[in-house]
Design brief:
Helix content is about 90%, strand content about 0%. It contains two helices and no strands. Helix 1 packs antiparallel against helix 2. The two termini are about 20 Å apart. The relative contact order is 0.21.
Amino acid sequence: MKAKKEQATGKAKEAMGRAVGNERLTAKGRAEQVKGDTRQAKEKIKDALKD
C-alpha cells in the first residue's frame, strides 16, 4: 500500500515539475517513484519467501 502511494505521489510531482519547468521537482518525483518501485519489489520478494 505504501509503495503504491509513493509511486503515485512521485508521478504527480514529476508531472508538476515538467508542467512548470522545475527540474528539481521532476527529479524528486522520479526518485520517489523509484523508491516506491523498490519497496514494491521488496514486498513481493517477502511474500514469495513466505510460501
